[in-house]
Amino acid sequence: xxxxxxxxxxxxxxxxxxxxxxxxxxxxxxxxxxxxxxxxxxxxxxxxxxxxxxxxxxxxxxxxxxxxxxxxxxxxxxxxxxxxxxxxxxxxxxxxxxxxxxxxxxxxxxxxxxxxxxxxxxxxxxxxxxxxxxxxxxxxxxxxxxxxxxxxxxxxxxxxxxxxxxxxxxxxxxxxxxxxxxxxxxxxxxxxxxxxxxxxxxxxxxxxxxxxxxxxxxxxxxxxxxxxxxxxxxxxxxxxxxxxxxxxxxxxxxxxxxxxxxxxxxxxxxxxxxxxxxxxxxxxxxxxxxxxxxxxxxxxxxxxxxxxxxxxxxxxxxxxxxxxxxxxxxxxxxxxxxxxxxxxxxxxxxxx
Length: 352
Prior knowledge:
Blueprint: H1 12-46, E1 58-61, E2 66-68, H2 69-72, E3 78-83, H3 88-104, E4 109-114, H4 121-131, E5 137-139, H5 143-147, E6 155-159, E7 165-169, H6 174-184, E8 233-238, H7 242-249, H8 251-270, E9 274-279, H9 286-295, E10 301-304, H10 309-313, E11 321-325, E12 331-335, H11 342-349
Helix pairs in contact: 7-8
């Protein structure tokens, strides 16, 4: 007689252990795909950066000071970790990040760079206190992230003592720790000892501040699909994962994204205004944006801001935000995530 494969668990502790093990396995299955996806995105973003001079930039710190990266390069390695308070893998990696700072802080400049995307200074300050972070915490205005192809959070960028980008990654794994050890010991990727620079390190040029369109400015030079001539335009700045991913980590933002999507859809159906939803490049690909559009039929057409230039052009650092442009192509109104009254603002733009 063939033995049954059914397992009977009469011991309550055995059942508890089984459920715990099953939950752990399910969690691992759920997160391994995301980890692989994040690692692939970071690798793709970092590929053109490796070996290039690191960008010169001055970062504002949470304590009111500044960090001039150009003065750090050539002195010792610099490790920049981009992160966000709403980012689940960032939270998972924070204890390890603090350990890295304690281990390498005397040999590598370790800097926590908040990506400045849908985060406030108060959010960052509370997060630092809650997790006991002791490394310098800097606040990016988006410009450094754009120059370093920020596509995921967290994103690790390691710059060698020679001032060149040595490593870009997503995971806190053996590859990251090997890169840190090489940098700390002054070794290049192939194991050769890096010579001390005889003259100042050649830096990538300091990026010029992007022009920001203010109310009354004529909008021009944006790499976005053209709008209908002679019509006002509504630009919705968003991320396709806002309503789902942020539901747990930032529920108020998730609700705001849904509200703005529904408002824009309703107003679009009335006609008279050209609507375009502009997605940030963080955690978003062209295929994912197309899938989002398919899942939300009847909503405004979508476009990917591939390098973040459109977000920068209007000074958008939080989602959802709406920019209303009048029929003459001038910025008429900018509404942030917490601002309501899109109907009234649109009527004012149209002179109704």
